[in-house]
Amino acid sequence: MEPSISYRDAYARSVEARVRAVEGSDGGHLVVLDQTVFYPGGGGQPPDRGVLLRASDGRTWTVIGARRLDSEVVHELEPSDEHEPPAVGDVLTAEIEWSRRHLLMRTHTALHALCGVVWRDYAALVTGGNMEPGVGRMDFEFERLSGDLVDEIEASVNAELVAGRDVRVAVLPRDEAFAIPDLIRTKINLLPPGIEEIRTIEIVGLDLQADGGTHVANTREVGTIRVTGYESKGRINKRIRIALDLG
Ligand SMILES: [Zn+2]
């Protein structure tokens, strides 16, 4: 069973599913479904929020988070005194909060464009990143980063985004993925040895990374970004902050 449909189809907003397990008490129940569209978080992208709906009686539960547990996704329900949790065997519709997720997909894709530009133009390695809807940051080994360079980077990233580059998802056997030189820089060698397949995200002509998150299908869907700040995290390590131009 695939843990989440989101790994294959980032645009799937809802799915009908059967409850496989319910755990917890004191209101904060955890629910496992036989399939889900919820992204469980990881790679700097926060998990989805959304709802579970039971068509048989119209009852709904708010999902405040999700996480991966082995090969399954656990949905974390909002604590509630009045509400019984759903029961094992119930048929529910699992639906993510799409506006928030789509903003995360745009933000995540913008971070890949940033990563690709900084590597292509300055050969600086990315060491980490994080995001919230509409804003993100990435850390680079980038000793000579300056205010002038930041302006250049912003312009170059926006030029790539408006160029309308396709974003492709692929799943490769581990050996094949390790043979791609571009993937080494995203620390693919840190992946646990047990993983047999590597999921890659490619912004065609710009960036290729091993990655588990959700992204838009074309960079044009991101819009444009602003670099909102940069800071030193040591002599070599620098952090660049970006925000999507919203509105
Ligand atoms: Zn990504």
Which kinds of small molecule does this entry bind, naming each only once? Answer: zinc ion
Q: What is the average of the pLDDT values?
A: 92
Percent range for β-strand residues: 35-45%
Strand order of the largest sheet: 1-2-5-4-3-6
Number of helices: 4
Biggest sheet layout: 6 strands, antiparallel, barrel
Order of helices and strands: EEEEEEHEEHEHHEEEE
Instruction: Specify the overall morphology.
Output: elongated
Give the tally of β-strands.
Answer: 13
Radius of gyration: 20 Å
The chain-level structural class is alpha+beta
Fraction of helical residues: 10-25%
The low-confidence runs, each spanning 5 or more residues with pLDDT under 50, are none
Compute the separation of the termini in Å. 39 Å
Q: Could you walk me through the main structural features you see in this protein, from its secondary elements to its overall organization?
A:
With 247 residues, the chain is α+β, with helices and mostly antiparallel strands. Helix content is 20%, strand content 37%. The protein contains 4 helices and 13 strands. The protein has helices at 98-122, 147-162, 174-178, 181-184, and strands spanning 14-23, 30-33, 50-54, 59-69, 72-77, 91-96, 125-132, 135-141, 167-173, 197-203, 207-210, 225-232, 237-244. It has a 6-stranded antiparallel barrel. The protein has a 4-stranded antiparallel sheet with strand order 7-8-13-12, with helices on one face. A hairpin with a 4-residue loop joins β12 (225-232) and β13 (237-244). α1 packs across α2 (147-162). The longest helix is centred in the middle third of the chain and has 25 residues, at 98-122. The protein is elongated and about 60 Å long. The mean pLDDT is 92. Bound molecules: zinc ion (ZN). Residues 43, 108, 112, 201, 211, 213, 215 line the site of zinc ion (ZN).
